[in-house]
């Protein structure tokens, strides 16, 4: 793989605190990503906002405004994580689909390619820039746009199950599953819009637990214990 899109769960980045940032968790992510960057792999990153805000947390806020709050949560996450990455010795840039003053630069494929050529890690924040689209959809959209070889989906759960393992101790974990099966069985790997976008653009995903030791590096090196979502 030459280029990957790594999706980080906001909740997973919060670690045991379940909200905000857990710096030790983020430092560990940075250490692993630096291994890939040093090997010449180009890494784009999308981060969810669930450690701060989930789009339908409140019934008293208009959906469009709620989603805008979520977009800003992802910007905060990307700025924070990118700075931790810099501390770990990487060069980074944060791109958004809307103006954020001097905080970020506007997303474009040309800009992403320019930064990748410079050996930078590119954070793609702010979702799609529109309400009613999740960071799942933004992840697949950006992966397709930048022609990533694969999506690495680093979650709080270690793969894809036939039911929720938190509520069903007998839930079965898949080693491999097709994106069509994900759609047909509503397996909730990513939301339906993102799943269809994956299927139509033949974008495969590797789903694994962020908090497992060396999970990002092991996934890139073929020592994979999560779920392959095939297209």
Automatic annotation (TrEMBL):
Alphabetized Gene3D superfamilies for the sequence: Acetylglutamate kinase-like (3.40.1160.10)
Inhibition and activation profile: Inhibited by UTP.
Any one Pfam family match given in the protein's UniProt record, by short name: AA_kinase
Amino acids binding UMP: 49, 67, 128-135
Swiss-Prot/TrEMBL catalytic activity: UMP + ATP = UDP + ADP
Record's keyword terms, sorted: ATP-binding, Cytoplasm, Kinase, Nucleotide-binding, Pyrimidine biosynthesis, Transferase
CDD domains per UniProt: AAK_UMPK-PyrH-Ec (cd04254)
Broad class of enzyme this protein falls into: transferase
Source domain of life: Bacteria
One Gene Ontology MF term: kinase activity
Family: Belongs to the UMP kinase family.
Subunit and partners: Homohexamer.
Name of this chain's protein: Uridylate kinase
Originating gene: pyrH
């Amino acid at each position: 793989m030459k280029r990957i899109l790594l999706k980080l769960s906001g909740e997973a980045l919060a670690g045991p605190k379940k909200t905000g940032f857990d710096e030790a968790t983020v430092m560990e992510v940075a250490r692993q990503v630096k291994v890939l960057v040093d090997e010449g792999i180009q890494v784009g990153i999308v981060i969810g906002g669930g450690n701060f805000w989930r789009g339908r947390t409140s019934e008293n806020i208009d959906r469009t405004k709620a989603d805008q709050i979520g977009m800003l949560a992802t910007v905060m996450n990307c700025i924070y994580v990118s700075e931790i990455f810099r501390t770990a010795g990487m060069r980074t840039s944060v791109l958004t689909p809307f103006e954020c003053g001097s905080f970020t630069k506007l997303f474009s494929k040309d800009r992403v390619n320019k930064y990748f050529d410079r050996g930078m890690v590119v954070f793609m924040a702010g979702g799609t820039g529109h309400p009613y689209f999740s960071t799942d959809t933004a992840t697949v959209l950006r992966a397709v746009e930048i022609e990533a070889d694969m999506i690495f989906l680093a979650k709080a759960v270690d793969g894809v199950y036939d039911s929720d393992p938190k509520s069903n101790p007998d839930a079965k974990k898949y080693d491999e599953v097709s994106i069509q099966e994900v759609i047909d069985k509503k397996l909730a790997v990513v939301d339906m819009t993102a799943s269809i976008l994956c299927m139509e653009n033949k974008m495969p995903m590797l789903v694994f637990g962020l908090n497992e030791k060396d999970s990002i590096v092991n996934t890139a090196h073929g020592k994979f214990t999560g779920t392959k979502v095939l297209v």
